[in-house]
Amino acid sequence: MTATVHWTDNHQDSLTYTFWGDCFVQDYRAVMYDSNMMICESVHPVHHIINLRLSTKLPVGMLSSLIYHHAKSGTAGLLILVGANRYLREITDIVDAVTPDTERNVYYAKTLDEAYGLIEQTKVTLLAS
Q1: Strand-strand pairing, 3-7 and 14-22
Q2: Secondary structure of residue 9 in the 3-state scheme
Q3: Torsions phi, psi for 3 (to 5 deg)
Q4: ∠ CA(96), CA(82), CA(25), 5° rounding?
Q5: Distance between CA atoms of 33 and 47, rounded to whole angstroms?
Q6: SS3 for 29-82, per residue?
Q7: How much of the chain exceeds pLDDT 90, in percent?
Q8: How far is CA 45 from the centre of its chain?
Q9: How far are the Cα atoms of 30, 48, 58, 60, 115 from residue 20, in angstroms, in the given order?
Q10: N or C: which terminus of the chain has fewer CB atoms within 10 Å of its end residue's CB?
C-alpha cells in the first residue's frame, strides 16, 4: 500500500492523506473508500490535507479526481496540497478553470506543520466572525 488516510486529530475535523513512492490506482481507490466512510460519520466540515512530499508518481487523473470529489462533498473544508510541485499546481488551476461553478478552498503548503497552521488560521477566522 502506497497511500494512507487518517484523522489528523481527535476532533475529527481534518483528514491527512499520505502518498509515497509510486502510488497505484488500487491504493488510491482504497484510500478514497476509507476517507468516504470516515467523512460520512462527520456532521461538520472536514479539511483534507494531501501529503505529496514522499510521492514519486501518482495515477493519471488522481489529483483532479480528488479535487473534484472534495468540491462536491457536502462537508468540504480546506483542501491543502503539501509538497505539490508546479505541475500539480497547474493541474489544480486547470480543474478550477473548467469547473468554475464549483467552490473550492485549495491551498498549498511546503510542510505538514504549515498545513496545520492554515487550518488553525481558518478556525480563528471563523470564531472571530
Answers
A1: antiparallel
A2: coil
A3: -155, 145
A4: 75
A5: 17
A6: HHHHHHHHHHHHCCCCCEEEEEEEEEEEECCCCHHHHHHHHHHHCCCEEEEEEE
A7: 16
A8: 13
A9: 15, 17, 9, 15, 18
A10: C
The cell numbers describing 70, all together, are 472534495
pLDDT digits (tens, 9 = 90+) for 74-95: 667 888 999 988 887 887 778 7
Task: Retrieve residue 96's grid coordinates.
Answer: 478550477
Percentages helix, strand, coil for the chain (3-state, rounded to 5) are 45, 30, 25
Name residue, grid cell 476517507: 35
Q: What is the pLDDT along the chain (129 residues), one digit of tens a residue?
A: 688 899 998 888 899 998 888 877 788 888 888 888 888 877 788 888 989 888 777 655 666 666 666 555 666 788 899 998 888 788 777 877 787 666 667 889 999 999 999 998 887 665 554
Q: Which three cell numbers stand for residue 9?
A: 486529530
Helix (H, G, I), strand (E, B) or coil at 92: helix
